[in-house]
Amino acid sequence: MRFTSEELQAARDRLVPDVAASGLRVLFCGINPGLMTAVTGHHFARPGNRFWPVLHASGFTPRQFAPAEQQELLAHGLGITNVVARPTARADELSAEEYREGGRLLAEKVAQLRPRWLAVAGVTAYRVAFGDKHAAIGPQERTLGDTRIWALPNPSGLNAHWTLATMAEEYGRLRAAAFADASVQAP
């Protein structure tokens, strides 16, 4: 899919609906929708984004889903939302205030949906949104009610110091924690 610059820029005002339901095992949380995501309405839609390959490589999904298949995540106890709803070309277009307000709104969303884990794909976004400047990749001390939080590497192709393999390993650690109880099997 190729879109013109005009089509991409016109998507800056579009909201991308969450893929979510109550009681998910993991609610993945991107930083904010990119313009390709806003144009298509599908999360992590930019071709260089590694979210979908990493989800499969880490064992969360039985095969690699395409962004257009995002609703199928719900059957696997997974969902997607964002810290900030406003689409941008780059995350650095967001203000610290937008991140903090996004963190507040995300906490409200988590209180309503009650996923077992909130997985924020981008430790810097997590730090700013939740005021935790020392957060590192991995499980966090903070919880939102009964929901545990895991900071994950950002799957953007621009995050070059994390390879597909190293990201899959970290996402796999989350998968093991999310499906740790014997009553629920990983997909």
TrEMBL record:
GO biological process terms on file: base-excision repair, AP site formation
Pfam families xrefs: UDG
GO molecular function: pyrimidine-specific mismatch base pair DNA N-glycosylase activity; uracil DNA N-glycosylase activity
Official protein name in the record: DNA glycosylase
Keyword DNA repair among record annotations: yes
Keyword DNA repair annotated: yes
Alphabetically ordered keywords of this record: DNA damage, DNA repair, Hydrolase
SMART domains from the UniProt entry: UDG (SM00986), UreE_C (SM00987)
Taxonomic superkingdom: Bacteria
Residues covered by the Uracil-DNA glycosylase-like domain: 17-180
